Amino acid sequence: MDILLIEPPYRSLKGAGPDSGYNIALPSLATFLREKDMEARVITCDLYEEAPARVFALDYAKGQELYMETIDNDEHPVWKKIAADISSVDTSLIGIVFLTPMIHSVEKVIRIIKKTCPKIQILVGGHHPTFLPDEVMKNPDIDFIIRGEGEIPLYELIKALKTPHPDFKTVPSLTYRDQDKVIHNPMAPLIEDLDSLPYIERDLVINCDYNKHQGHYFNTARGCPYSCSFCADKRIWGGRIRRRSVRNAIDELLMLQKNYKIKMVDMTDGTFTYDRKYLIEFCKEFVKNKLTVPWRCTARYDNIDEEMLLYLKGANCQGLYFGLESGSEKILKAMNKKTNLDMILEKSEMVYRSGVESVAAILLGVPDEDSEDLESTIRIMKMIKVDLFDINNYVPLPGTFYYEKMTQEERDKIEWKKTGYKSFGNCFSHNVSQDEFNHYLMQAYGIAKTTMDNFIAQNQQTA
Question: Are residues 236 and 363 in the same domain?
């Protein structure tokens, strides 16, 4: 095998299973390599632990403590299962997806690899090493980083490794060592024509039973046109959108519908609804091609309208995920959300009336937030028409506006082992204490629980 791609365990270490059996990026890379006559496979480590895919967010937040315990427990079964699978695979290169909150899980998997098969070379990719390559390369067990989009650089790296004397200077987007010096090669151009990429072969995930895991991920685009202060997507994708043709996306969905039992398809686009013309054409073709799979997508309050909702509902869209984030006009402006409270309340009412289910994401604890701002968010949560809430606390991600504003001293103090989007162990607001912040988190989770209970009760009445 040319490369084994690994998604480290994370959700399962906090007591929850994955929503899907795969991270869409890894089977996408493996499929691209297969088309180039290279052999690649994927392991989703969260599948090792039997856990429900859906647990109430409060329990998941409390699960951060379980995560911390498991990271430090070398005898935990998940680490032994990872070691056993690595031992059974004949490869000289392992690639690991590296997202910031899972730093300790990534490092744990790397140590297991080196202990189990010391000669295997290790590659990491993803947002964290893309923005902090020098810091990541301080780990001597990491041989390579691919920064940004992965398909072309990964193919070129494997080609180089197959030669007797690899020349890494020609591999775009690669970070590597030349003796004691860390080298960052120029970035590869982005793939302009996403239709040129093969449909993802999800069976390349070697440890997933798709009869059991019937949630699937899907994307129609790469990039996001927005610049939220807490998100790095605009920087990692160069600030522009590349989108598959509607025909190409519909044909892959037809393939999915034919070959898999599907409970839900989740669109992973940064904002699926940003292009009104594309959305309407997609929905029309969805119906015309007799697709029946239920699906959900990301949306924004500033680009949704009643006609779009009619098309979405007609095309079996089961849910919209909105970034409400805050009930404070001051914080919405600081986040660069391009929304306001009047718009949010008006559009949420419109979506609620349409019958398309909606989730409002709440983000608490950004640096400028104070108790008055938090009170405003609790207040709007009690006012807004929405089916469910997704409560998150702010995490300072490299590559974001907020992270760039931090001092090095502030960055060095981050305790990543207890820091998560759902955790009671991290607070990055300059204006409230951890205890005060947790008090507001509990209020938010309480409102979310009541909203969820009402949603379940209404569904049971109409069933």
Answer: yes
Q: Of 138, 166, 184, which residue is a domain's last?
A: 184
Closest CA to 313 of 278, 356, 349, 346: 356
Alpha-helical (H) ranges within 315-433 are: 329-334, 341-354, 371-383, 401-405, 408-412
Q: Which two tokens stand for residue 448?
A: 């979310």
Q: List the beta strands (DSSP E) in 45-167.
A: 93-97, 121-125, 144-146
Q: Shortest CA distance to 44 belongs to which of 71, 25, 72?
A: 25
The reported pLDDT for the residue numbered 142 is 98
Buried b (16+ CB within 10 A) or exposed e, 294-324: ebbbbbbbbbbeeebbebbeebebbbbbbbb
Same domain as 268, residue 155: no
Same domain, 264 and 129: no
Question: What pLDDT is attached to residue 460?
Answer: 81
Domain CATH code at residue 55? 3.40.50.10090
Residues of the chain with pLDDT under 70: 53-54, 463
Query: What digits encode the pLDDT tens for the residues 269-325?
Result: 999 999 999 999 999 999 999 999 999 999 999 999 999 999 999 999 999 999 999
Under 8 Å between Cβ of 127 and 399? yes
The CA radius of gyration of the chain, in Å to the nearest whole number, is 22
